[in-house]
Amino acid sequence: MNEVAMSGKDTAPSGWRVAVLGGGAWGTALALAMLRAGHFVRLYARDPETVAAIDRGENPRYLPGITLQPGIVATSNIQATLDGADCVLAVTPAQSLRATLAAAKDHMPAGIPLVLCAKGIESETGALLSAIVEEILPLNPVAVLSGPSFATDVARGLPTAVVVAARDEALAADLAARFSAENLRCYSNDDLIGVEIGGALKNVFAIAAGAVTGAGLGASAQAAMVTRGFVELRRIGAAFGARPETLMGLSGLGDLLLTCSSTQSRNFAYGLALGQGKPLAGLPLAEGVPTAAIAARIATERNIDAPIIAAVAAILDGTITVRQAVTALMTRPLKTETND
Ligand SMILES: NC(=O)C1=CN([C@@H]2O[C@H](COP(=O)(O)OP(=O)(O)OC[C@H]3O[C@@H](n4cnc5c(N)ncnc54)[C@H](O)[C@@H]3O)[C@@H](O)[C@H]2O)C=CC1
Ligand SMILES: O=C(CO)COP(=O)(O)O
């Protein structure tokens, strides 16, 4: 039976014209969240079938079983989506962000905020997604929305807390206030890089957590991996200038807690299949796959000790098995517990 997405705020949509780029699970869920927060929502999906489905009030490919509340204006015309927008949410996968922004560039109203909702690092260049926005759209302030938030939970209107970050504290606070609704609580943060890195790297450890579970290594191994993984996340974050306390928050620790413990996470599910030796072809998007390889390269280049990230990258490129990775991690020279 279909479950009707709940409506949060009762306010008439006197709000912003919000343009959502991306008609997948997260783009559609955020479009619903923006409707509930009182905004007018246009959504760009490149696939006409997705547009037709959203017009019918569903997105069965990406959000099966969820009925969309009316109000999302979907189109495959990116210019029409962006025309007159007050704010843009970029919700295509990290490795597609550059292409999405290139398509948006000529139609982007100057000065309006671009809110990154994808989680990853560009695998070819090692660029953070915010750097790609600043390169392609230098006239648009960049913000990031991140934190523990499964698209299906948000689409169903279940209580969720996220963080909205921008370098300009006032912009972050304004966006957080405008995006919040009864069941979406948005905190603000001026540590753009910290919030971005937390979301990008947690996916790598979600894959590792899934692999540990899939290989039947036990709950103790799982806890050890997530804890030591969090140390690696903070080391890489520090190298990019993230504030340590940011990574203790929703984007970072919060998202690790969620995605390292739930088969609802596509990254965890990907790792689970890896650990069980099951086929990987055809699995849904797992952003941690391309990000693991580039994060491992960044760690090597910057001389950051990140053995779990290196192990995930090596498992994914087929150099070692999950079992071999675990043996290598367990037999590293003993050392003092350093947590930074
Ligand atoms: N699904 C979730 O629960 C959450 C996802 N995210 C992040 O949001 C991002 C998107 O994820 P999902 O929407 O879940 O993925 P998805 O796989 O459900 O959908 C991705 C959508 O992007 C479209 N797309 C891909 N390349 C494109 C391009 N070049 N131009 C236009 N459209 C393109 C696809 O056609 C598809 O509609 C990822 O970085 C993910 O980590 C963040 C929080 C929650
Ligand atoms: O980022 C997410 C929840 O915060 C979604 O995680 P997955 O992409 O692993 O499903």
UniProtKB/TrEMBL annotation:
It is an enzyme of class 1 (oxidoreductase). This is Glycerol-3-phosphate dehydrogenase [NAD(P)+]. NCBIfam families: PRK00094.1-2, PRK00094.1-4. NAD(+) binds at G22, G23, G24, A25, W26, G27, A151, R266. It comes from the Bacteria. It is found in: Cytoplasm. The keyword Transcription regulation does not apply. The chain crosses the membrane at residues 16-35. The lineage of its organism: Bacteria, Pseudomonadati, Pseudomonadota, Alphaproteobacteria, Hyphomicrobiales.
